[in-house]
User: Fold Metalloregulator ArsR/SmtB family transcription factor from Rhizobium croatiense.
Amino acid sequence: MDDKLDAIFSALADPTRRAILGRLAKGKATVAELADPFALSQPAISKHLKVLEQAGLIRSGREANSRPRVLEPAALKTIADWMADYRRFWDQSFDRLDDYLSKVQGYEND
Amino acid sequence: MDDKLDAIFSALADPTRRAILGRLAKGKATVAELADPFALSQPAISKHLKVLEQAGLIRSGREANSRPRVLEPAALKTIADWMADYRRFWDQSFDRLDDYLSKVQGYEND
DNA sequence: TAGCTATATAGCCATATGGATATATTCTCG
DNA sequence: CGAGAATATATCCATATGGCTATATAGCTA
Assistant:
């Protein structure tokens, strides 16, 4: 699990890769489309994509000639879960909210 | 802001540093106390602390002979805010919860 | 002030990272 | 099948990172 967190956090520690995720949040995209906004070579982008994929943040598809990428949200949930332990430190409403929800009838968190 | 996110994510991309944060979540600690659980030299720990401090994740105090560290939650909030844009991808209840809260009387999120 | 404690800094080394260019691979299509 | 398009891999280079040992600095305390 530590290894997973290492990979995810370090994948996110780069503005190019975060921007790529931002693009993928709007939907599937090819490598060429992902590379377009950047002044970087295609291999550089492929390298970034590999880092993101190995961290589990994205997945590769296969479509005719291209290998479109899609977002893989589970990895983000992994770090969100890690952060949950700290949430009380900055989110003053968190404890109260949690408490509140547990008392509300008819609300199910799936 | 990108630089800030770079620094925070890359500070978190190391298990030693995350463990240090975990310790600090339980309260202020000296460098010696923070170093204790690890099979690392004192300078190595000091280096990690510097990384955490430069990312804004911790702060140094001054107390007699020692320089105790404390958690600085604002930095964690920074990445939580960044992640908020993606939350809808994994948290199915998020939209519903958000919607629900906006309709609840008497609840104020500060 | 001298010495002890706590911590920081300097310097060194090995490995990792991010970029580039050149080339290989894999499909699609005529 | 041969050409072109889309992407991956191989190399190479410069810089960053994480660890160590040795040493410097700062504050107590006798």
Summary: Residues 2-85 of chain B form a domain with the Arc Repressor Mutant, subunit A fold (CATH 1.10.10.10). Residues 10, 14, 16, 40-41, 43-44, 47-48, 51, 64-66 of chain B lie near DNA strand D (CB under 10 Å from a C1'). Chain B touches chain A at residues 2, 5-6, 9-10, 12-15, 18, 21-22, 25, 71, 73-74, 76-77, 79-80, 82-83, 85-87, 89-93, 97, 100, 104, 107, 109-110 (CB under 8 Å).
